[in-house]
Amino acid sequence: MQNDQELRQTIEKAKKHDLEALSRIYEEFFDRIYRYILIRVRNKEAAEDLAGQTFLRMLERISDFNWKGAGFKSWLFRIAHNLVIDLFRNRQTISFDETVSRAGGSAEDLAIANETLNEVLESLTLLNENQRQVVLLRLVGGLSCRETAETLALSETNVRALQHRALATIRKQLKVKADV
Fold first, then answer.
1. CB of 152 closer than 8 Å to CB of 163
2. What pTM, to 2 d.p., does this model score?
3. Which of 3, 9, 45, 132 is most buried (CB neighbours < 10 A)?
4. Contact indicator for 149, 155 with CB cutoff of 8 Å
């Protein structure tokens, strides 16, 4: 969507179950929602399923959405965030190694991809849950500071502080690895 006004018009049409508007929302946000979920669950099939469920829930609840609280992106990421939490509560995840081995490719390519991703994921494990959520929503989800604050029910100041501390921790970890 080009701007906020265009998004608002599209949402209003989607509330009336306009298929073109719903399709535009799906096309605009699916990749970001999917990437956010994929990094959280580390399983391609589970991420695809949860991204689909996110948009199904959006469709079921879009008539209840209003502009008085969180923005639309925040609302949509909140749905995805809650589905991920539900998944973890039910402990239905598969290890990342299983996912990579299913992906195909040469053994060397898979080993390099696995090692690089494991380093990034290891850095994320050094963060507390709020820091991890802020980094994923801001950098992977592409949410603004305000949208991230709305999604996580935090102040913008808190989001900025969490992001700053998280990135400092990750930089420090990556520097230690580079020095070794």
1. no
2. 0.68
3. 132
4. yes
Domain interval for residue 134: 4-179
Angle formed by the axes of helices 72-90 and 44-61, to 10°?
Answer: 130
For the chain, 180 residues long, give each residue's pLDDT as a single digit of tens: 667 889 999 999 999 989 999 999 999 999 999 999 998 888 899 899 999 999 999 999 999 898 776 689 999 999 999 999 888 877 544 444 444 444 455 555 555 555 555 666 677 788 898 998 898 888 778 888 999 999 998 999 999 999 999 888 888 877 766 665
Q: Rounded CA gap, 131 and 109, in Å?
A: 30
HSE-CB of 128 using CA atoms within 13 angstroms: 7
Residue partners of 127: CB distance under 8 A and separation at least 6: 135, 166, 169, 170
Show the tokens assigned to 112: 């390099």
